[in-house]
């Protein structure tokens, strides 16, 4: 008989002789696993999408690295502190942030639905700080462009064809139109979505989790029985060795 056949025979003998231990281990692991699955609330993903401000040529008013640095080092700690002061406990969830394309940032949190109100407040607060910061940069840029427009309109040659060459007039008008276009093309920062919850929970479904728990319970029971049977066989060999003259 081959070694694999011997193993299968030993396994079958062990399971038959220790069927009570097998059933007890199987049921214990099964109850623990099912209890964990049924009592642990499902987690969902909450996302907030923020569009960054751009100038009239599509360039961000603030680099993405600077935005990330502000979120991580300033606004997240500030909002977390305000959350604790207002609610009396620290947030029991994490807020991750990442870039989406070239002009958007995404805040995401995975947590049970019971934390939804706190997550919405947290995301809303961070989004407001980012939008306010971007709005200030936009205000500065608008004032700068308006000043350039006024200076260009007062420049000699604009609207005075008789006193300026046609080429100078054309260049001045093109410059003025370019600046006005940049001013009109500014895109403000805005929060597109605030803490939108995913429809389905994160992770595997309940049915699949239950199936895996049954499988794990069976494997655990087999391992326990084999280990117990192995210990008994070793003890028997030791006793036989000690009983020899």
Present the secondary structure layout.
Elements (H helix, E strand, L loop, with lengths): L2 H15 L1 H21 L3 E9 L12 H24 L8 E5 L3 E9 L3 H39 L11 H19 L5 E8 L8 H38 L2
Antiparallel strand pairs: 1-3, 1-4, 2-3
Helix pairs in contact: 2-6, 3-4, 4-5
Give a concise summary.
The chain has 245 residues and is an alpha+beta fold. It has six helices and four strands, in the order ααβαββααβα.
Structural write-up:
The protein is an alpha+beta fold and 245 residues long. It folds into two domains: 18-41 and 202-236; 43-197. 64% of the residues lie in helices and 13% in strands. The protein has six helices and four strands; from the N terminus they run H-H-E-H-E-E-H-H-E-H. The protein has helices at 3-17, 19-39, 64-87, 116-154, 166-184, 206-243, and strands at residues 43-51, 96-100, 104-112, 190-197. The protein has a four-stranded antiparallel beta sheet, covered by helices on one side. Strand 2 (96-100) and strand 3 (104-112) form a beta hairpin. One of its GO terms (cellular component) is plasma membrane.
């Amino acid at each position: 008989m081959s070694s694999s056949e011997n193993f299968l025979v030993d396994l079958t003998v062990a399971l038959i002789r220790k069927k009570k231990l097998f059933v007890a281990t199987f049921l214990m692991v099964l109850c623990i696993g099912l209890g964990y699955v049924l009592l642990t609330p499902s987690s969902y993903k909450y996302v907030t999408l923020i569009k960054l401000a751009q100038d009239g040529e599509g360039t961000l008013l603030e680099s993405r690295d600077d935005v990330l640095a502000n979120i991580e080092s300033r606004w997240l700690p500030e909002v977390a502190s305000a959350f604790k002061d207002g609610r009396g406990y620290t947030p029991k969830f994490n807020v991750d942030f990442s870039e989406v394309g070239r002009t958007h940032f995404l805040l995401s949190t995975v947590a049970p639905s019971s934390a939804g109100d706190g997550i919405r407040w947290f995301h809303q607060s961070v989004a407001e700080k980012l939008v306010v910061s971007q709005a200030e940069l936009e205000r500065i840029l608008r004032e700068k462009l308006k000043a350039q427009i006024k200076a260009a309109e007062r420049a000699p040659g604009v609207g005075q064809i008789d006193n300026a060459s046609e080429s100078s007039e054309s260049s001045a008008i093109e410059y003025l139109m370019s600046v006005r276009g940049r001013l009109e093309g500014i895109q403000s920062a805005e929060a597109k979505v605030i803490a939108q919850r995913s429809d389905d929970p994160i992770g595997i479904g309940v049915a699949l989790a239950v199936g895996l728990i049954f499988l794990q319970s069976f494997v655990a029971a087999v391992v326990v029985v084999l280990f117990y049977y192995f210990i008994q066989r070793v003890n028997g060999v030791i006793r036989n060795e000690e009983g020899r003259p």
